[in-house]
Design goal:
Blueprint lengths: L2 E7 L4 E4 L5 E3 L3 E17 L9 E9 L11 E4 L2 E5 L4 E3 L9 E7 L4
Antiparallel strand pairs: 1-4, 1-6, 2-3, 4-5, 5-9, 6-7, 7-9, 8-9
Length: 112
């Protein structure tokens, strides 16, 4: 069953200047994207330092017959939880010439 997810993209719109004359950006742009198939999380334990074993978790989104505008640097809200886009989303070719293609997006938890 497909779900609607929300793409969250940092804004590039300057709305003012702060006390140090640095640009102040508008809030992030959000867009609802229907048709996502959400794969369960997988996890990996990474041994980086003695006594520490962080666990990295990932969720995968599949879009059949559509290629929504999701890019590296975006975040995606899935079931109320925000995730970072992990790498470049991957498109796959249509089943028939001229038919719709699909998109696979790997997400990671921001704590990872």
């Amino acid at each position: 069953m497909s779900e609607t997810v929300v793409r969250i993209r940092p804004s590039t719109t300057v709305v003012g200047r702060d006390a140090f004359d640095q640009p102040v950006l508008a809030g992030p742009d959000e867009a609802e994207i229907p048709g996502a198939l959400v794969a369960p999380k997988g996890s990996t334990t990474v041994v980086s330092q003695p006594g520490r074993e962080p666990v990295l978790t990932a969720t995968t989104l599949y879009f059949r017959r559509s290629s929504p505008d999701i890019a590296p640097g975006d975040r995606v809200r899935v079931r109320g939880v925000e995730h970072d886009v992990d790498g470049e989303p991957a498109a796959w070719p249509p089943r028939r010439p001229g038919g719709p293609s699909g998109l696979v997006v790997t997400l990671r938890d921001p704590e990872g």
